[in-house]
Amino acid sequence: MAEAGPLVWIDCEMTGLDSESDTILEIACIITDGSLNILASGPEIVIHHPQHVLDGMNEWCVEHHGKSGLTARVLGSIVTMEQAEDSVLDLVKSCCARPRVAVLAGNSVHVDCAFLRRYMPRLIEHLHYRIVDVSSVKELARRWNPRVLQMAPAKKLSHRALDDIIESIEELRYYRDNFFVSTG
Description:
Blueprint: E1 7-14, E2 24-32, E3 38-41, E4 45-46, H1 51-54, H2 59-68, H3 70-76, H4 81-95, E5 103-106, H5 109-119, H6 121-126, E6 131-133, H7 134-144, H8 146-150, H9 161-178
Parallel strand pairs: 1-5, 5-6
Antiparallel strand pairs: 1-2, 2-3, 2-4
Helix pairs in contact: 7-9
C-alpha cells in the first residue's frame, strides 16, 4: 500500500473564480497529518498586483476583499507570485520532500487547484493528484445526515486565507468525529 502523505491545506483568495482571467491575491498553507494534527503552519502571503488588476475584480471580491483589508494589503505588498510559490513549496517540502505524496486539502479546493496549476505549477506538481475536499463531505452530510450538518460549527467567513484553512480543518475534524463513525 502506498504511503499516506500529509494533508497540505491551501486556501487562496483571488480576484474572481476564473483561473484563466483572474489571479491569486493571497495564499496560506497549513500541513497536517492524517489525524489533522498540525505539522507545520506557513505564512499568510499577500501577493502584489497593480491597481488595474484589482480594478477587474467582480462586485463580490471588491466588497469582501475591501472589507477584510486584503485589497490594500495587495497594493502594499512587494511579494511576487514566484516568491509566494517558493515559500509555500519550501514549507511543503519541509514536511514531505518526496513528490506526489502530500495531498491537497481544503474547502472547494478544486478551485484553488485550478489557480495553482496556472500560477504555481511547481507547487501543484509536487502534490499528489488526489485531493481532500471538505465541501464534498459537507454535501454528503446534507444528503445523508442533515442533523450532522445542522450541528456543524458555524463559520466566521472572514475570507482571509489562513482563517479559512483553520475553519476547514475544524470542519473536517467535526465531520470525522460526528459523521464518519468507526465500527472497529
